[in-house]
Amino acid sequence: MRFLHTSDWHLGQNFMGKSRIEEHKAFLFWLLNTIKENNIDVLLVSGDIFDTGTPPNYALELYYNFLKQLSQVNSLNTTIITAGNHDSVSTLKAPKQLLEALNVHVVVNGDEDENIIIPIKEPLIENAETKAIVCAVPFLRDSVIRQSLAGETVSDKEKLANNGIKAYYEKAYNKAKEINSNIPIIAMGHLTTVGGRTSESERDIYIGGTLDIGGDYLANMFDYVALGHLHINQRIGNEHVRYSGSPIPLSFSESKNTQKVNLVTINDSADENVKVEELEVPLTKKLQVIKGDLETIKKELKAIEDKTTWIEVHIKDDNPMFANTEIRELATKLELIILAVKIEKSEKQLRAKELKAISLDELSVQEVFEKRLDLEEIENSEFKEQLSQTFNEVVSNLHESEQI
């Protein structure tokens, strides 16, 4: 059987005031053709379908149109989508039953009311034999983790998260074995594992940041583990425990990465049961980071041929403010797109206040609002969450109007 593992699409991302819609359109078009060309049986999408809990309408349209096109691919048996920490449970859950008619299984929170054990059978065959089992584990929120540790009291939240998630995977694995212990069992997940390489665009999603869960722990149970959350394509200690990474670079820290998806072939042969091939996603929009003093940066700007490149500049100069002005004027003359200019924090000439300052270029609109909320020290967490949701809806409506 052939599985295609992808994650972290972040549809609807607004990147320093720039939409990623054309990049996402190109990726989904490429993904659809890749599924057809490689006769993929199962598509696994391991979380963070959308960038925010209130995605703009154009992002929802991209998502639904893609799933509709998937239903017309003859080779594709099943599509399994799990929620990530960026995804809204209600947004993904709303069309869940309708999508099942298209053989698309959506798992949003993995609580007791939701079936995460998905048998993969030959399509269009009555009483078909189960060929593999997928344990579709989404991003596990605190309430679900506590359910998996029923009867235990753990005061330390970090330990609770580790133990709860481990218990959840063990329970899922044992349920899958009860169905059939002689066929491949695949797991999905959305979390940070020990040894995983991170970039600047991921958030810590559990107390303590990195969980005490490594590739060996998951590898001992499952034949393949399809992970999401980290944006760099990588294996975690074992050939069959992998992150697919994001299909487009989501921050300038990812500008030198090669974006990929994983093509996983599971054979009956004991010699090579699981084979993983990394497929490179074509780059639609180049992100480039330029560092140095004024003259170095000017020289590198003049060497850029692709005028659509998005550029981040790091200035290390005796007079950084003057250099900033010079660089922006040159970029305008060269018709280049500079999205952010950062002044190296090591400059002795900068005042202490400037050293601590955060450029608005570095923050999303939502992050600016969250920082403003933090200053208010609002004790009512529900009210604070409601304010954030209302603000996100306003931003989403604004972005939507910009697309018209």
UniProtKB/TrEMBL annotation:
Coiled coil: none
Domain Nuclease SbcCD subunit D C-terminal, first and last residues per copy: 285-376
Pfam families given in the database record: Metallophos, SbcD_C
InterPro entries, sorted: Calcineurin-like_PHP, DNA_Repair-Maintenance_Comp, Metallo-depent_PP-like, Mre11_N, SbcD, SbcD_C
Keyword Nuclease (UniProt): yes
Domain Calcineurin-like phosphoesterase as annotated: residue spans: 1-232
Domain of life of the organism encoding this protein: Bacteria
GO molecular function, one term: exonuclease activity
Keyword list, A-Z: DNA recombination, DNA replication, Endonuclease, Exonuclease, Hydrolase, Nuclease
Record family assignment: Belongs to the SbcD family.
Function per UniProt: SbcCD cleaves DNA hairpin structures. These structures can inhibit DNA replication and are intermediates in certain DNA recombination reactions. The complex acts as a 3'->5' double strand exonuclease that can open hairpins. It also has a 5' single-strand endonuclease activity.
Subunit-structure text: Heterodimer of SbcC and SbcD.
Record protein name field: Nuclease SbcCD subunit D
Species: Malaciobacter canalis
